[in-house]
Amino acid sequence: MNTSIKYIADSRPPSFNRIDISADDTRLSWTLDDKSFNCELNGYGCSLKIPNFSEIKSDEYYLKKGMEYLSPALEMPNIQVNRLSLCIGKESAYLNDFFASTIPCKKCIHQFIQVQQFY
Hints:
Blueprint: H1 3-11, E1 15-23, E2 27-32, E3 35-42, E4 45-49, E5 56-58, H2 62-74, E6 80-88, H3 96-100, E7 105-112
Parallel strand pairs: 1-6, 6-7
Antiparallel strand pairs: 1-2, 2-3, 3-4, 4-5
């Protein structure tokens, strides 16, 4: 790749029109613009579905495995989001990254169901 083109591409902050994140008792799912990801409880482990890849089966807890893939997207430097939607229906320490991250967005929609914050 031409180094000047690579420099321009790398200097632009990652930008998303829409990020939707949902967590409940059996599934963690998220959408980054038009790409959907899903990690759901499957017997004694979980199944992770990523666009353009075959299904990944793991014996890890579904929230832990899902956050391994979601966290890097939320931690991108200078990330820009027009609309962020959070729907959390499951209380878990694995979801603390949502509350620790600062994501600048123009519009934020959040719904928390039966979540308690412990200090």
